[in-house]
Design a protein that fits this description.
Elements: H1 14-19, E1 22-24, H2 33-40, E2 46-48, H3 57-73, E3 81-84, E4 86-88, E5 91-92, H4 106-111, H5 115-131, E6 136-137, H6 162-178, E7 182-188, E8 205-206, H7 210-215, H8 218-226, E9 231-234, E10 238-241, E11 244-246, H9 254-263, E12 269-272, H10 278-283, H11 286-296, E13 301-303, H12 307-322, H13 328-345, H14 348-351, H15 356-378, E14 380-384, E15 401-406, H16 415-427, H17 433-456, E16 462-467, H18 474-482, E17 485-490, H19 497-511, E18 525-529, E19 544-547, H20 553-563, H21 576-579, E20 593-594, H22 597-613, E21 638-646, E22 653-662, E23 667-675, H23 684-697, E24 704-707, E25 718-719, H24 723-735, E26 744-751, H25 763-769, E27 773-777, H26 783-790, H27 798-806, E28 812-818, E29 825-833, H28 837-840, H29 844-847, E30 852-860, H30 867-884, E31 889-896, H31 901-906, E32 909-921
Parallel strand pairs: 1-2, 1-13, 2-3, 3-6, 6-7, 7-9, 8-10, 9-12, 15-16, 15-17, 17-18, 18-19, 23-24, 30-31
Antiparallel strand pairs: 4-5, 10-11, 14-19, 20-21, 21-22, 22-23, 24-32, 25-32, 26-31, 26-32, 27-28, 28-29, 29-30
Helix pairs in contact: 5-6, 5-15, 6-8, 11-12, 15-20, 16-17, 17-20, 26-27
C-alpha cells in the first residue's frame, strides 16, 4: 500500500471490504430476494448480468437502477460494478430490436480490415450498455486461435495472427474506454488452443510452454496491458508444460501473481473464472477455491448464480481471513484495485441517473448506419471461381433457387432467439425446455427470414428446407435436381461434422449434373459459412465460398445484398488463414525506374521476345505482335507512366509495367505487367506493381483502378485463355489486393475468310425490323454528336479511341445508327484498318497475319431497348466495309465476354483472346504490400 492514498475508515469493516471482492449473478429479470440479500447483508460489490436477466433496454435500465438503489440505501460507499458480456456477433447479453444495435463479431470486424471501424463499433456498443446503467464490459476478447479449426471460441476472437488480434483488441478496448465503461481482457492466458478431454469434470488443458505462449498467445494481453486495460479475466483451464503446471489457471499463484503480475506488469483488477464450473467445484470445492483464487492474486471472485454456492464462497473467504490463510494486506491490495477501477467508470451520480431510453433514441440513427456499414464491410467472398455472383449471373427468372440450412440454435443476439425463448417460457417453464425445443425448432426460425429476403429480391421462386445429421435425403436430391442454383449454409462445420459431410455430398451431386443432351453441366453451388470462416476456407473444391461471421438478422441482410449484387463485398479473411493462401513474398525489393523510351526501347523489345519464347507452346502470348512502340500513346488526354526493373550494367530489362490515367473517367489503368521468365518469383512483379499503384494513387481525380486497357489493347485484363495460367494469374493479383471475383469478362474475336462471306440469311431482315438508319462518317465534322453519345458510358478509353479515329479520316471511320423519327444518334462503332495509327495500339490486328480491318468500342444508348439487334447491325455494316476494302479478316476488339456469342458466331466470329477485366474503387484500396 506504499505510495497509495489512505483508505476511507469505512473499509475497516472487513465484511464490507470482502464484499467488494466478489462478483455474483442471479436468475430473474427483476431484483430477487437472494441478490437483495447479497447486496444488503453481504455487501456484494460487483454483479454479473446475463441474457437471462435482460428482457429489453428499458427493463435493463430499471433493473440496474434498482440494484444500485438497494446498494446506496444499504450504505455502500461506492456503487456496484455491473458487468455483462456484449461481444456482438452471437454473444450479446443485452438484446433489444429497437434500441440496441447489432454489430459483427470480433472476427467479423477484423474482416473489415479497419481498426478505426473496430474503435467506432466498440464505442457504440459501450455507449448503449452504459445508457442502461451497465459500467463494466467483459471485453475485449484477446485470445489467439493457435489451433483455429477446433476451438469453441470461433469468431469471438479476431483470428490466429497475434499482431492482428492485438491490434483489434486494443482498438476495441479504446472504444469501450472512450464511452466510459471499464474494460476486461479475456481469457488469460488464452483459450485459443485448448485440448478437451471429454468429460465436464475434465478441465481443458493448455500444453504450450511459457516460451511458446510469449511468442504468440500472450502478445495481445501484453499490448492491452501497456495501453491501459482495466481488468483481466483468468481462465479456469489447466496448464501443463515444462515449468508451468496448474490445475486451474485462476487458482495458480504461478499464473496470476507470477506470469500476469510480475512478468506482464499488470496492476489492474484480476477476475477469476466462475468457481461454479463443475470441474473446479468438484475437484476443490467452492470455499477452498475462493481462498486459493484470492491467494493466487485474483481481486474479484466470480460466482454466476447458485445462491447456496455463493454463500459457501463468502464463508470460505471469511474463514480464510479469520484463520490467517489469507492476510488482511492481501485483501486490501485487491480492494484498492477494485476501488480504482470503479472510480474510472462510475459514481453515485451516474449510477442513480442512467441516461436510459431517451439517450438511446438519440444514438439510434448514427448507430444503425454504423451497424449497416460494419456488416456490409465484413461480408467476405473468399472464392468465386465460376463467377456465380451476383445470382443474376446464373439464374433466369423462371429458374428456382434452393436454400439449404442446418438446424441450429439461434444466436443469443437475435430476434429469433428472443422469440423462441419467450414462446418456450409461455408453454413450458420448467428448466431445460428451451434447450430441448431449440434443438428441434430453431433452425427454421433463424433462416426462414433469409429465404424470404432472397425471395423478395427476385422474380423466381426460392425453395428452402433444412438438413440434419441424417444427411442428404431423397427430398434434398429432388430439390437439387429441380433448382437452377443451390445455396448451402454451414455454421461451424468443423465442429458439426454432419454439415461438412452434407455440403460435400451436395457439391458432388452438383458436379455430376448433366444436360438433356447428355453433356456434363456443373450446377451452380454457393456455400456460405455463417459462423467460423474455417469451414471450407482451404477447400478449393468449393468454388464459391462466402463468410458472414455470424447469422444474426443484420448479417444475413448484408449477405442478401451481396448475393443479389446490390453490395460489393469488401471483407477479407482475417489472420494467417488468408496469408496461407498467398504467395510467400521474397524479401527482395527491386529498384523500379521510370521507363526511358530512348534508353529502354530496344531492351523492351528484347524482353517482349523473351516472354514470347518463354510462353508454353499450348498457350498464346498476347505480346506476339507487340513492340515497345505499342505501349506509348502520346495522347493529350491520357497521362502515361511506365516502369522498368533493369540491369544498369547490361541495360537489360527484367520487368516492365505500363500505366495510364484516363482523365475523362478518372480511371487509373495497369495496361501491362510482365517479367523475364528466367527471373520470375523474385518479387520483380511485386515491386513494379507497388510502384504503379503508388503512382496512380497520386493522380488528381483518381476514382478507380483497372487491370486491363482498351487503349492500348495488348492486355484487356487478366489473360484467361489457359485454365492453369488463369488460376495462377488470378491468385497472383488477388494476393496484391485485386478482387478477381468481381471481374468482367472481355475478349477479342475474329471473322476470317471474309472475301467469301455473306450476310447471314434472316439477319438483314431482323436488322431492317429494328427501324434504324445507319451511315459511315469520317473526321471531326461529326465529332459533337458522337462524343456526346459516348459520355453515356463510363468505360475507360472510349473517348480516346474515338478521338484517335476522328483524327484519321483516311484510315478510320465511325459507323452510326440513328432513329429516323428524330435523328437521334443511338449507336456507334469505330472502323479502322491496319495502316491507321489506332491499329498500332491493337496488336491482335497484326496477329491475324493477313489483310484485316477492325471494329472497336461499340456504344449503344441506354434508351435503346434492342441492344443486341442494334449492335449486330453496326458490326454487320462494319464487316461489309472491311470486305469492300479488300480485307479477308475482321477483328472485333474489346467485346463483352458475356455478350451475345451465339449472334456473333452466326456472323462468322470466333474468340481470339479471353480476358478478365478487374476494377476497384481507388478510395477503398487498402491492401498495398510494403514496397
Amino acid at each position: 500500500m506504499a505510495g497509495k492514498p489512505e483508505m476511507d475508515p469505512v473499509w475497516e469493516d472487513m465484511d464490507r471490504t470482502m464484499g467488494q471482492l466478489f462478483m455474483m449473478g442471479f436468475d430473474g429479470t427483476t431484483v430477487t430476494p437472494q441478490i437483495e440479500t447479497l447486496i444488503k447483508r453481504h455487501h456484494l460489490g460487483c454483479i454479473l448480468l446475463t441474457a437471462k436477466n435482460l428482457k429489453s433496454a428499458e427493463d435493463t435500465t430499471k433493473l440496474c437502477y434498482d440494484l444500485q438503489k438497494i446498494a446506496h440505501d444499504a450504505g455502500h460507499p461506492v456503487p456496484l460494478a455491473i458487468g455483462i458480456d456484449q461481444e456482438n456477433g452471437g454473444v450479446n447479453s443485452l438484446f433489444d430490436e429497437i434500441y440496441i444495435r447489432q454489430y459483427p463479431s470480433n472476427m467479423g470486424v477484423a474482416a473489415t480490415g479497419s481498426t478505426d471501424l473496430a474503435f467506432e463499433v466498440a464505442k457504440a456498443t459501450a455507449q448503449e450498455i452504459s445508457a442502461c446503467g451497465i459500467n463494466w464490459i467483459f471485453g475485449p476478447c484477446l485470445d489467439v486461435l493457435t489451433n483455429a479449426r477446433n476451438q469453441p471460441l470461433g469468431v469471438r476472437t479476431a483470428g490466429d495472427d497475434p499482431q492482428e488480434v492485438s491490434a483489434y483488441g486494443v482498438a476495441f478496448m479504446k472504444g469501450y474506454k472512450e464511452a466510459g465503461v471499464a474494460t476486461l481482457g479475456k481469457h488469460f492466458p488464452s483459450y485459443g488452443n485448448l485440448e478437451f478431454l471429454g468429460s465436464t469434470l475434465d478441465v481443458p488443458i493448455i500444453t504450450e510452454s511459457l516460451e511458446q505462449l510469449s511468442l504468440s498467445a500472450l502478445i495481445p494481453f501484453r499490448n492491452a496491458i501497456r495501453q491501459g486495460l482495466d481488468s483481466m479475466m483468468v481462465g479456469g483451464c489447466a496448464m501443463s508444460s515444462a515449468g508451468l503446471n496448474a490445475m486451474h489457471a485462476c487458482l495458480s499463484e504461478q499464473v496470476v501473481d507470477g506470469l500476469l503480475r510480475s512478468d506482464l506488469k499488470f496492476d489492474g483488477v484480476v477476475v477469476s473464472e466462475c468457481l461454479e464450473m463443475d470441474a473446479l467445484s468438484h475437484n476443490i470445492g467452492v470455499g477452498g477455491g475462493t481462498v486459493m483464487a484470492v491467494n493466487a492474486g485474483c481481486d474479484v471472485v466470480l460466482l454466476c448464480r447458485s445462491f447456496s454456492v455463493q454463500q459457501e464462497a463468502l464463508r470460505g473467504l471469511k474463514t480464510g481471513v479469520e484463520t490467517g490463510t489469507i492476510t488482511r494486506k492481501r485483501i486490501y491490495e485487491s480492494l484498492r484495485r477494485v476501488l480504482e477501477m470503479k472510480a474510472k467508470c462510475t459514481s453515485w451520480e451516474q449510477a442513480l441517473n442512467p441516461p436510459g431510453i431517451q439517450f438511446l433514441e438519440r444514438l439510434q440513427p448514427s448507430h444503425t448506419a454504423l451497424s449497416t456499414k460494419a456488416y456490409n464491410n465484413s461480408i467476405t467472398v473468399v472464392r468465386d471461381k465460376n463467377r456465380l455472383l451476383p445470382l443474376t449471373n446464373i439464374l433466369d427468372n423462371e429458374e428456382e433457387l434452393l436454400l439449404l440450412t442446418p438446424l441450429v440454435k439461434p444466436l443469443a443476439a437475435s430476434a429469433a432467439s428472443r422469440a423462441l425463448s419467450e414462446s418456450v417460457t409461455e408453454k413450458s417453464p420448467e428448466p431445460g425446455a428451451w434447450e430441448r425445443t431449440a434443438s428441434v425448432m430453431s433452425g427454421e426460425r433463424v433462416f426462414r427470414e433469409l429465404g424470404r429476403s432472397l425471395a423478395r429480391q427476385r422474380n423466381g421462386r426460392v425453395l428452402h428446407t433444412s438438413y440434419t445429421a441424417n444427411g442428404v435425403r431423397p427430398v434434398h436430391e429432388n430439390l437439387i435436381n429441380r433448382a437452377g442454383a443451390i445455396i448451402v449454409l454451414t455454421a461451424d462445420a468443423n465442429r458439426n461434422l454432419y454439415q461438412h459431410g452434407f455440403t460435400k455430398h451436395v457439391s458432388m451431386i452438383c458436379n455430376m449434373q448433366y444436360t438433356t443432351g447428355g453433356e456434363k453441366r456443373e450446377k451452380p453451388l454457393i456455400v456460405v459459412a455463417v459462423s467460423s470462416p474455417y469451414d471450407f476456407a482451404m477447400d478449393s473444391s468449393i468454388g464459391t465460398y462466402i463468410c458472414t461471421y455470424d447469422f444474426t438478422e443484420t448479417a444475413l441482410n448484408s449477405l442478401v445484398k451481396v448475393l443479389h449484387g446490390e453490395l460489393t463485398p469488401k471483407g477479407t479473411l482475417p489472420g494467417t488463414i488468408s496469408k496461407s493462401q498467398k504467395l510467400q513474398h521474397s524479401k527482395q525489393h527491386w529498384l523500379v525506374e521510370s521507363f526511358n523510351e530512348e534508353r529502354d526501347a530496344n531492351a523492351l523489345d528484347s524482353l517482349i521476345k523473351a516472354v514470347m519464347e518463354g510462353t508454353p507452346v499450348n498457350q498464346r502470348s498476347e505480346l506476339s505482335s507487340a513492340t515497345s512502340n505499342s505501349f506509348i500513346l502520346h495522347h493529350p488526354e491520357v497521362e502515361e507512366s511506365h516502369f522498368v526493373v533493369r540491369n544498369s550494367s547490361t541495360q537489360a530489362l527484367y520487368g516492365f509495367c505500363s500505366t495510364y490515367f484516363f482523365k475523362s473517367t478518372g480511371t487509373g489503368v495497369i495496361g501491362a505487367l510482365f517479367v523475364d521468365p528466367q527471373r520470375r518469383k523474385l518479387s520483380i512483379g511485386h515491386s513494379l506493381h507497388n510502384r504503379a499503384i503508388r503512382t496512380l494513387l497520386q493522380k488528381d481525380g483518381i476514382k478507380r483502378f483497372q487491370l486491363g486497357s482498351r487503349l492500348p489493347s495488348m492486355f484487356l485484363g487478366i489473360p484467361t485463355g489457359h485454365s492453369s495460367e488463369r488460376k495462377r494469374l488470378r491468385s497472383w493479383f488477388a494476393n496484391l489486393g485485386w478482387n478477381a471475383a468481381l471481374s468482367r469478362p472481355v475478349c477479342n474475336m475474329v471473322a476470317r475468310n471474309l472475301l467469301s462471306w455473306e450476310v447471314p440469311k434472316g439477319m438483314a431482315k431482323s436488322l431492317a425490323s429494328a427501324g434504324m438508319e445507319f451511315d459511315l462518317v469520317y473526321g471531326w465534322d461529326y465529332a459533337g454528336q458522337v462524343l456526346d453519345l459516348i459520355k453515356t458510358s463510363n468505360r475507360q478509353g472510349l473517348a480516346e479511341v474515338y478521338k484517335l479515329a476522328l483524327s484519321e479520316p483516311t484510315a478510320c471511320g465511325i459507323i452510326r445508327a440513328m432513329r429516323p423519327e428524330d435523328g437521334a444518334l443511338v449507336g456507334t462503332v469505330v472502323l479502322y484498318y491496319n495502316h491507321s495509327r489506332l491499329s498500332e495500339f491493337i496488336p491482335p490486328l497484326k496477329d491475324i497475319n493477313e489483310a484485316a480491318g477492325g471494329i472497336s468500342s461499340p456504344v449503344i444508348s441506354p434508351s435503346v431497348g434492342e441492344y443486341s439487334t442494334l449492335l449486330q447491325g453496326l458490326i454487320l455494316l462494319g464487316m461489309k466495309q472491311v470486305k469492300q476494302h479488300g480485307c479477308n479478316a475482321c477483328l472485333l476488339d474489346y467485346m463483352d465476354g458475356d455478350g451475345n456469342f451465339d449472334g456473333f458466331s452466326a456472323m462468322g466470329f470466333e474468340v481470339l483472346h479471353n480476358f478478365e477485366e478487374v476494377s476497384c474503387d481507388a478510395a477503398t484500396w487498402t491492401m498495398i504490400p510494403p514496397a
